[in-house]
Write a structure and sequence with these properties.
The protein is mostly helical. Helix content is about 80%, strand content about 0%. The chain has one domain (about 40-355).
Amino acid sequence: MAIISGGGRRVLHKVKPYVAMIVLQLGYAGMYVVSLATLKNGMNQYVLVVYRNVAAAAVIAPLALWFERKGRPRLTPLIFVKILALAVLEPVLEQNFYYMGGKMTSASFASTLENIIPAITYLMALVLRAEKLNIRRRRGQAKAIGTLVTVAGVIEMVLYKGPVVEFFWYSMGGAHNGDNIAASNGHRSAGRSRWLKGTLMIIGSSSWWSAFLILQANTLKSYPAELTLTVLICSMGAVMGAAVELVVERGSAAPWVIGWDNRLLAPVYSGVVCSGFSYFMQGIVMKERGPVFVSAFSPLCMIMTALMGSFILSEKITLGMLIGAVIIASGLYSLLWGNCQDQEISSQSEAHDSVKISTDQGSRVDDIFTAQL
């Protein structure tokens, strides 16, 4: 029995990261659908951003106060400026751009297009010289080809629509009634200019998020308090988002009124599940299996969002969207493979250096010991 239980524990330990990432992607897919459904039903996007970040800060703040009460570093003026920039990039710019683009397109299209984030991040890192491209190496070729293929997938999705792919639930009643289909912002109901504008908004959102990731990694080196950093970013983002909303809406109080409906569910779900629960789950898995393992599950969210969006929001999925999704996913995995090879070589180099240092130190000790004799 002990052997069986021990083997069962080993299997459970191996399976847990996969289960965690599947649950995480399901949570993100739900956020895409719930948020865009609420926005298309009339909720103000600026208010949604503010409430979402307030909910996230409220959930994470107690955890930050408890777990980081002793090891929290000092907040210098330079770190404060970086946190302020992070708050502008992610809560204010990235979320608002994404919600605007999602309203003009669809949840499934937006989640598919967001798979270009690794490619944009890689290009930004090249420009900032935080990443090097060795085109002579296979891993460098994989990253370059993956980036180009990802961009090609985006272009294909924008230029080619194709026929609507019919799912069996399209013929069912319930959520797929005439009103929902008329309200859907799919390829057929939205004008080409509106769809293109939404695409540019989502690409802009992905660019802001990529810049956020690069600056966040830099900030964590000098301020390694992840929970506190998240609370500060969400709090500052909520304040600045509220200021933006007041300027846009000219001080109107009507958009801020929410009830016990989707207007409350969307910010609470997005803040608690996606900015709270997923934060810990993703962090734990990333420490154990690395960032490449986490990124490899992104296409799963794309599939879940497409299915949920077509069933709940009556979004039409076209052949062009499916082809583009396959192309983008192929480019993503090529890019991730190249990054994985870089990480393996880097870890091997660090291990070699540590062994060399240990050997040199051992030689010095032997020399000292021999001299004393």
